[in-house]
């Protein structure tokens, strides 16, 4: 028996083994075909020959594939090439692929079982009948090999070396020359072609809902940043989602002595107040006017009302709904924010100028 060849095939399979893993694989059925050289076991008394295979198979997972394969070879007899000898068979083979996810080629090992039939002509003793005589037999065969597979998409290339142990224990030869089995070495190159359309790529998973994209209480602050969830409509909300007190500063909306006409410098401040009121459409404010202490109480009361009315009219004429305004209300000289006189009783012009003012007092 050609035991050296069997050992070589076994060692070849072991040498290509390497630790690897694969993340994806093509699970379509494929058709396969190969051709190569069948180095015949010399104990057969046959010459090396070309062989061919056809089959089909598929990957069961990233590492294991299974093939059903038909093979055929027709070597010459060594002693007499004119005598006919042929062999064909079928096998089921499993291949373990040492795949790496980011490589387009990988080694594999092959193992399988099958059925082989050989048919031959031989010369016998003429006393036993005419020549050439014919002999045929069926027997089990085992496959073992190793190879490299190259991924080109739908088409893969295989290069393989292996051995087939043919358990043929009845040959057309004398009894004392009978063998129990034969070991052939096979070297081949082949292709696999995937069948059917390529599987569509799975859509990327939908992103998990993020608190940055949610505003459960509708206050304009996302749930990630909202430290006060559950705020109520109409509340003024700060950047942290919590209600904040709102005061509209009208410092600078002051009036000349004994006047209720808005000064040019006051208009710019009122325009800022209008922007705040538009930004918070649920806000309600009181429009209040004030005076200094010069003049009688009755006169100052009327003057404060005229000043409040001047601001009120400016707000409503610039798009602020009157329903959001309380007043206009005059407080006369009753609510000073600065002293009208100094400690020695002398006049304090700066303090009186600050008291000649209007205010927007938040009501909600």
Automatic annotation (TrEMBL):
Annotated signal sequence range: 1-22
Q: Name one GO biological process term.
A: monoatomic ion transport
- Record GO terms (molecular function): calcium ion binding; porin activity
Q: How does it sit in the membrane?
A: Multi-pass membrane protein
Chain ranges of the OmpA-like domain: 242-364
Show the GO cellular component annotation of the record: cell outer membrane; pore complex
Q: Where in the cell is it found?
A: Cell outer membrane
Source taxon at top rank: Bacteria
Q: Where is the composition biased (Basic and acidic residues)?
A: 349-364
| InterPro entries xref list | Bact_OuterMem_StrucFunc, Beta-barrel_OMP, OMP/PagP_B-barrel, OMP_bac, OmpA-like, OmpA-like_sf, TSP_type-3_rpt
Which Gene3D superfamilies does the record associate with it? 2.40.160.20, OmpA-like domain
Q: Which UniProt keywords apply?
A: Cell outer membrane, Ion transport, Membrane, Porin, Signal, Transmembrane, Transmembrane beta strand, Transport
List compositional bias (Acidic residues) regions by residue number: 214-223
- Give the start-end ranges of region Disordered: 199-241, 328-364
The protein's name is OmpA-like domain-containing protein
């Amino acid at each position: 028996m050609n035991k050296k060849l069997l050992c070589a095939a076994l060692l070849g399979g072991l040498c290509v083994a390497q630790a690897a893993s694969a993340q994806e694989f093509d699970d379509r059925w494929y058709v396969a075909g190969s051709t190569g050289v069948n180095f015949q076991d010399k104990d057969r008394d046959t010459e090396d020959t070309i062989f061919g295979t056809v089959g089909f198979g598929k990957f069961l997972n990233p590492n294991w594939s299974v093939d059903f394969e038909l093979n055929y070879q027709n070597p010459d007899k060594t002693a007499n090439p004119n005598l006919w000898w042929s062999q064909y068979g079928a096998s089921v083979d499993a291949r373990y692929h040492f795949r790496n996810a980011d490589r387009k080629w990988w080694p594999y090992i092959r193992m399988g079982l099958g059925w082989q039939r050989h048919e031959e002509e031989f010369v016998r003793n003429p006393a036993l009948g005419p020549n050439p005589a014919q002999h045929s037999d069926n027997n089990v065969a085992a496959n073992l090999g190793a190879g490299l597979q190259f991924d080109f998409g739908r088409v893969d290339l295989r290069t393989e070396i292996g051995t087939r142990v043919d358990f043929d224990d009845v040959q057309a030869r004398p009894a004392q020359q009978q063998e129990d089995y034969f070991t052939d070495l096979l070297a081949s190159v082949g292709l696999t072609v995937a069948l059917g359309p390529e599987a569509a790529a799975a859509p990327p998973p939908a992103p998990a809902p993020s608190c940055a994209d949610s505003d459960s209480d509708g206050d304009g602050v996302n749930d990630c940043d909202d430290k006060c969830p559950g705020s109520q409509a109409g509340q003024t909300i700060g950047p942290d989602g919590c209600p904040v007190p709102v005061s509209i500063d009208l410092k600078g909306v002051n009036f000349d002595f004994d006047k209720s006409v808005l000064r040019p410098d006051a208009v710019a401040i009122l325009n800022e107040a209008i922007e705040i009121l538009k930004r918070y459409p649920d806000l309600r404010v009181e429009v209040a006017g004030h005076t200094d202490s010069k003049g009688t109480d009755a006169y100052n009361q009327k003057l404060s009302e005229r000043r409040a009315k001047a601001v009120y009219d400016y707000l409503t004429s610039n798009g602020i709904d009157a329903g959001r305004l309380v007043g206009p209300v005059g407080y006369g000289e009753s609510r000073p924010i600065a002293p009208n006189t100094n400690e020695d009783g002398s006049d304090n012009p700066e303090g009186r100028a600050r008291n000649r003012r209007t205010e927007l007092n938040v009501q909600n």
